[in-house]
Write a structure and sequence with these properties.
The complex is a heterodimer of chains A (222) and B (443).
Chain A (H helix, E strand, L loop, with lengths): L2 E12 L2 E12 L3 E5 L6 H8 L7 E6 L2 E2 L5 H11 E4 L11 H12 L4 H10 L15 H13 L5 E5 L7 H16 L4 E4 L3 H4 L4 E6 L2 E7 L3
Parallel strand pairs in A: 3-8, 3-9, 6-7, 7-8
Antiparallel strand pairs in A: 1-2, 1-4, 4-5, 9-10
Chain B lengths: L1 H11 L1 H36 L6 E5 L7 E2 L2 E2 L9 E2 L15 E15 L6 E9 L3 E4 L5 E4 L1 H4 L4 E4 L8 E5 H7 L6 E6 L18 E12 L8 E4 H8 L4 E2 L1 E6 L17 H8 L4 H11 L3 E5 L1 H43 L1 H9 L4 H39 L9 H26 L2 H5 L3
Parallel strand pairs in B: 6-13, 10-12
Antiparallel strand pairs in B: 1-15, 1-16, 2-3, 4-14, 5-6, 5-11, 5-15, 7-8, 9-12, 10-13, 11-12
Classes of the chains: A alpha/beta (222), B alpha+beta (443).
The complex binds adenosine-5'-triphosphate and magnesium ion.
Chain lengths: 222, 443
């Protein structure tokens, strides 16, 4: 498989804080990468830059061969809709929309809604019977599975998950982790931030950040 | 999806939406009322100001100056010229016929009043006019007019005479001098050659005519009419042998306030300017149009009244516009404030949408659609409430309810939309600048 993502000496400066410092690595298509590191080490910053939510202060970020650094606000928006599926620690579902509507929202911003496809996506994460529920009527694990369904709906090149199990209990954590394993098995490219080395062990590779620097890139493939 | 989100926003934030809606309804209601009144006020006030009297006076071109002392016209009847009553219907055929709201012909003759055969004779003027007369218009319709229209402030104690009867009213001043009261009978003598004591040699008393009339009321006008006897025009015409003729015509016309343009001399205008002038209800153009249908007539503008009216009209209209602007501004501010709160509250939602790749156009459209729904609901209700308010205002201030104008509805809706959009500009800017990354970090 070819290289999907390439970071070349990427730095991010927030005022006096250097959140990322000369970070370089590549991600192959279909790879599952676990990003680890202590709090404040720049994991979220890295995910945001990869997801087009933030721009690097210096360095290049190539996704599918295209440098997303110099993209305009409008092009970044398009990039997010087409190339990236986000899964957040806090789920970030729209509280007044049902599960299936939350999935359809991503379709709507991408192109047009397709309820059938949205339901299939929910079925894919095991929530076929929860489609009409509001987020408040779903458990944390179920909510997180809805966000996974939402992340998948537009067939993104890259799935970016920032501590997706951080707010879940063990049982739900396992459900969600299994989901990522399945996605990985289907060939999705995943970058997943986690504090849990158990989860990190499931990934193909592990990237460790410390003070914004890449401290370790380890291949964990057994 | 679009309507789902917009709809949800309304069901979730009823209180704030209501607040914004109420502000809009109030603002638009006041605007509607003020606009209705401003549009209506021209006509309405012009009608009100008619109480100050007719604003045009028509007299024969070749007439001599009236020899009037203390309300008594000492001019011999033979002198001067007269105008034909039969032409009067044509006044309602001119371009601005609908602005002619009334006219009253007058025929004044010197006469001698006798209370009864034994009482003292008093020199006075006998004035013939219409109280409420049916005039046949050339287009086949009938126009009711007379002093009730042109001089609505004239007060009669008792009753006006009937235009078709041989009755009269006596001016209050004259009545005070003679002790006449409603129910009395008076005789008025008229000498063809002027006043009886001045009978010319060669004229016999047999040429003297007289008429006996019933006094139906006492007339108070605040003017010289209080010294005369006023009777139906037909009676005076018959007495003087001036059948179908009159000497002076008072016309009440609704006019546009005078401006720079209307004060220009029409003969110096270009063709286009002349057409514009002619087709505007300026008092001068109406005067010209009257002159055109009444040959031999001279039309004078009672200028002072017309100009005073114009100024007050302009001021009231300006005031109404000011009220409009203030109401719109207030509504816009409230809408802007609620929209700003709304954006602040939905911060995370907007951030999420942006993170999911929602184009700025879509996010703005969602926000603006919501605001426009508000505008149309607020504008629509405001229009209804405003027309009601205008009705009451008209009733209270002018005694006549202002008439609603449906044409205002689209205007009001557009204004509401404009106000809401203007009020939403700053919040919308905030939406545009909102950075999703901090939102997703939970900030
Ligand atoms: N918008 C910002 N402005 C200023 N500083 C920022 C901003 N975003 C992040 N930082 C700083 O950059 C550094 C890296 O932050 P980041 O959120 O990437 O850390 P993290 O590894 O995700 O931490 P955690 O495990 O707590 O989520 C931190 O010191 C943080 O305070
Ligand atoms: Mg983080």
């Amino acid at each position: 498989m070819g290289v999907l993502v390439e970071l070349d000496r990427v730095s991010k400066q927030y005022g006096g804080v250097r959140a990322l410092d000369q970070v370089s690595f590549t991600v192959e298509a279909g790879e599952w990468i676990a990003i680890m590191g202590p709090s404040g080490s720049g994991k979220t910053t890295l995910i945001n830059i990869l997801g087009g939510l933030d721009s690097p202060s210096s360095g290049r970020v190539l996704v599918d061969g295209r440098d997303i650094g110099p993209l305009s606000e409008k092009d970044l928006t398009r990039y997010r809709a087409e190339k990236v599926g986000f899964v957040f620690q806090q789920f970030h579902l729209i509280p007044y929309l049902t599960a299936v509507e939350n999935v359809m929202l991503a379709q709507y911003f991408h192109s047009m809604t397709d309820e059938k496809e949205a339901r299939e996506s929910l079925a894919r994460v095991g929530l076929a019977d929860r489609a009409e529920h509001l987020p408040s009527q779903l458990s944390g694990g179920e909510q997180q599975r809805v966000t996974v369904a939402r992340a998948l709906i537009n067939h993104p090149a890259l799935i970016l998950a920032d501590e997706p199990t951080g707010n879940l209990d063990e049982a739900n954590e396992e459900l969600v982790v299994n989901l990522f394993r399945e996605l990985h098995g289907e060939g999705h490219t995943i970058l997943l931030v986690t504090h849990d080395s158990g989860i990190a062990r499931l990934a193909d590779r592990r990237i460790e950040l410390a003070h914004g620097r890449l401290s370790q890139v380890s291949v964990l493939s057994t | 999806m679009f309507f789902r989100i917009v709809g949800e926003s309304f069901s979730r934030n009823p209180l704030r939406k209501w607040l914004a809606a109420v502000a809009l309804v109030l603002g638009m209601a006041i605007t509607t009322a003020a606009l209705t009144v401003a549009l209506d006020v021209g006509d309405r006030l012009a009608r009100e100001f008619r109480a100050f009297g007719a604003n045009l006076v028509v007299s024969p071109t070749a007439d001599t100056l009236p020899l009037e002392i203390g309300g008594v016209d000492y001019r011999p009847v033979e002198e001067g010229s007269y105008l034909p009553e039969a032409d009067l219907g044509k006044l309602k055929t001119i371009f601005w016929r609908h602005n002619i709201i009334g006219f009253s012909p007058f025929l004044e003759v010197p006469a001698i009043l006798e209370r009864d055969s034994s009482g003292p004779a008093i020199r006075t003027t006998l004035t013939g006019t219409w109280v409420n007369h049916s005039v046949a218009i050339p287009d086949g319709t009938i126009f009711q007019t007379g002093v009730l229209r042109t001089h609505p402030w004239w007060k009669v104690e008792g009753a006006w005479f009937d235009d078709s009867k041989q009755d009269c009213v006596v001016g209050a001043g004259l009545a005070a001098r003679t002790g006449l009261k409603p129910g009395d009978t008076v005789t008025l003598r008229f000498a063809r050659a002027g006043l009886a004591p001045l009978v010319q040699p060669g004229q016999t008393p047999s040429e003297e005519r007289h008429v006996s009339m019933h006094v139906t009321g006492i007339l108070s006008t605040g003017g010289t009419e209080e010294q005369v006897v006023m009777a139906p025009l037909a009676v005076v015409q018959a007495l003087t042998g001036r059948t179908g003729e009159f000497r002076r015509l008072m016309v009440s016309a609704l006019t546009r306030p005078e401006d720079e343009f209307s004060r220009r001399d029409p003969s110096t205008m270009s063709k286009a300017e002349y057409d514009r002038w002619f087709c505007a209800p300026y008092i001068s153009s109406i005067a010209l149009q009257i002159r055109q249908v009444l040959p031999g007539a001279d039309v004078q503008v009672i200028r002072q009244v017309a100009e005073g009216e114009g100024r007050i009209l302009t001021r009231i209209t300006a005031l109404m516009w000011l009220v409009c602007i203030a109401a719109l501004l207030a509504a816009g501010l409230v809408v802007g404030a609620t929209a700003a709160t709304s954006v602040l509250e939905r911060h995370s939602e907007i951030g999420l949408m942006k993170a999911l790749g929602a184009p700025m156009g879509t996010v703005s459209a969602l926000f603006l659609a919501e605001q426009l729904v508000l505008a149309f609901v607020g504008g629509g209700l405001g229009y209804v409430a405003g027309e009601g308010l205008a009705y009451l205002m008209g009733q209270a201030v002018f005694g006549v309810p202002a008439t609603g104008r449906l044409i205002l509805l689209p205007v009001i809706l557009l204004l509401a939309a404009a106000v809401v959009l203007a009020g939403s500009l700053i919040p919308l800017g905030r939406v545009a600048r909102l950075d999703p990354a901090p939102v997703l970090r939970g900030e």
